[in-house]
Specification:
- With 130 residues, this protein is mainly α.
- The chain has a domain of 66 residues.
- Helix content is 70%, strand content 0%.
- Helix 2 runs parallel beside helix 4.
- It comes from Gluconobacter sphaericus NBRC 12467.
- This is Lipoprotein.
């Protein structure tokens, strides 16, 4: 090898190595933009439909009597309007209002607690298939 070729290798090899290592480290330090799927713009609509079905089920099973119906209807109507408003605007304030209205509707529904059997063998008998 001649003196000129040797000096080129001496200059270029560290430069290329530095460039490759710098690119590798930059790739390691870079943060991914997003993992998973972005939320659907219709997710609040789906949440409202589920909450509305839960409210309807509570009325049909007698968990909410005639005295609780006016408040439930008002909360359901407010949640419906807030959800439609959030779908139209797609803004963070409208989304927060829809979330709050849905929370109020769900909070008004009675929480069903499963009765615990006094005798553990009674639960075992219920779980058996015929």
């Amino acid at each position: 090898m001649t003196e000129t070729k040797a000096s080129r290798h001496t200059v270029w090899r560290p430069a290329v190595t530095l460039l490759v290592m710098g690119s590798f480290l930059a790739g390691c330090a870079a943060r991914p933009a997003m993992t998973g799927l972005p939320p659907s713009p219709n997710s609040r609509l789906y949440a409202y439909l589920i909450a509305h079905g839960m409210a309807r089920g509570a009325v049909m099973t007698g968990q909410i009597g005639p005295e609780g119906l006016p408040q439930l209807v008002a909360l359901d109507k407010a949640a419906q309007q807030a959800t439609v408003h959030a779908l139209k605007l797609q803004s963070s304030s409208a989304n927060r209002q829809a979330d709050q209205a849905l929370f109020s509707l769900l909070a008004d529904l009675p929480q069903k607690t499963s009765p615990t059997p006094t005798n553990p063998s009674e639960q075992t008998q219920k779980n058996r298939l015929p």
